[in-house]
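ugh ok fine here u go
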Amino acid sequence: MKKRLVLIEWLDSQRTDGWHTDKPATKPLRCLSAGWLMYDGKEAKTIAAHISDEESPQRSGEMTIPARAILSIRDLE
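structure:
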């Protein structure tokens, strides 16, 4: 198994439940996600939080992040 373990910094939308009188959010939410880079495409990156070490690896906890939302990708190994 030769996959990159990465930390991705990215921007996400924010939402608020119910009625509010306070000020609305004015910036996207900055997020950090770590995982094994399973797909490194031009339009999106997919990471998996868990991966088995076998001939045909199993994965769990996959997340796909749009490339336009990514601020940085850093290798963790």
